[in-house]
Amino acid sequence: MAAADSAELSDLMAFLDASPTPYHAAREVGARLARAGFGLLEEGAGWNLEPGARGYVLRGGTLVAFVMGTIPPWESGFVVLGAHTDSPNLRLKPSPELTQAGYRQAAVEVYGGVLLTTWLDKDLGLAGRVALAGGRHELVRLPGAPFRIPNLAIHLNRDVNKEGLVVNPQHHLAPIWGLESSGAGSVLELVTASLASTPAAGATAADILGFDLCFFDAQGATLGGAGGELIASARLDNLGSCHPITGALLDAGDAGATTRVIALHDHEEVGSQSSSGARSRLLESLLGRLVTSYAGAPADALPRALARSLFVSSDMAHAVHPNYPDKHDKLHRPLLGGGPVVKVNVSQSYATDAVAQGAFVEACRAEGVTPQFFVSRNDQPCGSTIGPITAARLGMRSLDIGNPMLAMHSCRETAGAADPAVMRRVLRRMLVEPPLRDPAA
Ligand SMILES: [Zn+2]
What we know:
The protein is α/β, with parallel strands linked by helices. It folds into 2 domains: 6-87 and 234-432, Aminopeptidase; 89-217, Aminopeptidase i, Domain 2 (Roll). It is built from 11 helices and 20 strands. The protein has a 9-stranded mixed sheet with strand order 1-2-3-13-4-14-18-16-17, with helices on both faces. α2 (22-35) packs parallel to α6 (236-252) and α6 (236-252) packs across α11 (419-432). The longest helix has 17 residues, at 236-252. The protein is globular. It binds zinc ion. Residues 84, 237-238, 268, 315-316 line the site of zinc ion (ZN). Zinc ion is lined by residues 84, 237-238, 268, 315-316.
């Protein structure tokens, strides 16, 4: 097992803590790219790009960035690294103010496949974006962690350890943030107070015209295990992929022959069906604009480019759980710290095929890394990712990979501390060495 790279780990932990919502994650990646000379491009504006240009677009919680290659994409294809920025969580309902039995609470809606019981007894913060009068919008993050969803005492639920805890998402999830007797204002007043340090300072609750606000585990990322070989944090699925992908693009440096792209999409956890999700036209439209930026682009430049391209979908993978080893096929049990996992599903819940897998394994070998493999048990349904969606949407050859983790979709997940740096190196190699030698295979 490789030793953890401490600089890489602290940077990953800072990234996780700075990104409580997909909007914050996309902005944080954008800020990192901007420091390396990537320009923010407005999708509604005309672009004047040349080979070697680097830039990115932001659409809500989605970011797509590129470094244009020196050879036109219809001759060299694209290498696209993809991941998702969103994680399952609880979100504030449009009419959020709730008082019950003497408590002030917030009304919530469930986003994605939340492991509900893991949100109980946690210190919860609130962050996201608000739309304000005058067409303005701001990212917000309330200070501290005013919210909490207390468990029911075992004395009032005597059979819970035999029967399991059943959480009704309508009745049992509203976080408490105070007592009615305190006379404190409203949740939206807490939100406007947190706008004080932004250009929207002075806004009142009545100025908030809309919001996308997410609750999050306020405990930051921490290292665990006696030797610091584990990392625990919220949102490892899938910020644990966004971070090495961003790092790989930065490490790849100046433009090479092939155009490099990273696509970090929102809304994977709810099916990707949105104007910024992997089912949208966003990536296709951006690739089309890049292709036509090259002098002499033929009319069929985009389909020719896509036919030569590779999409690498990175999403966290299920490591074997020591208390439940039989949940895995015994020949396919990825381990934390064991390096990148290639995900295979012949029914195409994962997009991996032999040729794309070969390109990835070759990149791993060149980095001295032995990949692990995951395939679901035959009697257990398989999850999916943006890999098959993008493969079907754009017709690019694709594969699914990811670093191993435990407790996927828990409020607080666990992964291996050594794996992120290894993934970053392998992905950098995928970007700098065009991986598909025979796209027609
Ligand atoms: Zn995921």
